């Protein structure tokens, strides 16, 4: 087998994009890249079908924007959020759009682009084991089968990059004692609806469901619309009955027939919604010579559709940094760029990661304080202007700023408290005619106590997510500790600014 400059394991989203990106680096000698994938047939998944504007921008930087053409991808212009019969329109900023599509068709388009790239060999083989020499990964062992026999091969390279997805077979061995394990709170149950019209065409629809997680819908081709229903773990024994009884009645009636038809026609497909914080690579705790990328390394809740945007943005940055290393066999030089990569990706990746889980906690509210925040969040969006433009810019990967995220998150928290005091609240029993009333003065003392609980809940939601993004550091690394302290100070400042901004512009 020939020696490659780079071996990439996994040809999903990140793998082909990185292979193409590295092949176009302005180097004296074009790198030789082996892109390995266990099956080159079109994949069939129920997630990875919505690419935010930030992901489109990343594709453009890689020269891969053409991969969105030629397979019935649908322009996406924003969101519509539904709650108890009410809706709010959340458009992307003018001039930006995302795309939604069948996942497999996009993957095949990326693979085709990688295969056309100079120096890239797209190989159908299953990576089974990392090859190590002197404490460093120098390649992978593979198997490939024909109708008659099985072949075992080895692919050696200066750098091995693992992009084998959320169920990575190599995550544990690469990260070693630095390994973080994915946390799964729920699963998306998916189906394809045929010939339906969403409340706002070319917009993703998020329906807030009482007693369950949110439902996400978006058009993925001219006739097909994906529906993803979040069901918390443990899953009910009779999943279909649970969906028909507790979820479907809360969705627009115009969709009921199509949902019943889809679930009766095909099995309910499921995908775990996992969160995996990005542990720094290239340290003494992880293996030398190998890099994890994409969902193999870092995952967030798919509610906001940010996974491909983070992965493609990571590819853009990693390509640029590796391009600054003359000799990829010099691991110490690669390590320095990996440290830069870890921190330079933070603004976008941390923003998307934190927002995805924080929004899920609010939209899937399962206690009284979270329900207050969910109501406040919906009413915050109803105000329009910057109350929409800021959050959707964060969600879409256009405005990569944890500081702006903290500002809006705590503005929502303070506004939610204001709503408790000043907006009509439901006071009738569940089975009675709805009756609403504004809180009276004698209720203020109890509401003041509840306000403290609500704000504390907001901190409990946001704080651990922030910590998961900044806590992975070496105790002896003074520079990194200073970064952590400065980021923490920024978030505290954002909370204070959010309170002041809310008083001046919202309340």
Could you give a short description of this structure?
It contains 14 helices and 19 strands. The protein is of the alpha/beta class.
Question: Could you explain the architecture of this structure?
Answer:
- This protein is of the alpha/beta class and about 500 residues long.
- It is built from 14 helices and 19 strands.
- Strands 1, 2, 8, 9, 10, 11 and 17 form a seven-stranded mixed beta sheet that branches.
Helix share, percent: 40-55%
Work out the helix count: 14
Distance linking N and C termini: 68 Å
- Uncertain runs: 472-487
Largest sheet: 7 strands, mixed
- Using DSSP, what is the number of strands? 19
Shape: globular
Rg computed from alpha carbons, rounded to a whole number of angstroms: 24 Å
What portion of residues belong to β-strands? 15-25%
Q: Decide which structural class fits the backbone.
A: alpha/beta
Mean pLDDT: 91
Strands, helices and their partners?
Layout: E1 4-9, H1 14-23, E2 33-37, E3 50-51, H2 53-61, E4 74-76, E5 78-83, E6 86-91, E7 98-100, H3 103-116, E8 120-124, E9 126-133, E10 136-145, E11 150-162, H4 171-175, E12 183-194, E13 204-208, E14 215-219, E15 224-232, H5 239-247, H6 256-265, E16 269-275, E17 290-292, H7 307-322, H8 331-344, H9 346-363, H10 368-382, H11 386-395, H12 402-422, E18 425-426, E19 436-437, H13 444-470, H14 478-506
Parallel strand pairs: 1-2, 1-11, 2-8, 5-13, 11-17
Antiparallel strand pairs: 3-7, 4-7, 5-6, 9-10, 10-11, 12-15, 12-16, 13-14, 14-15, 18-19
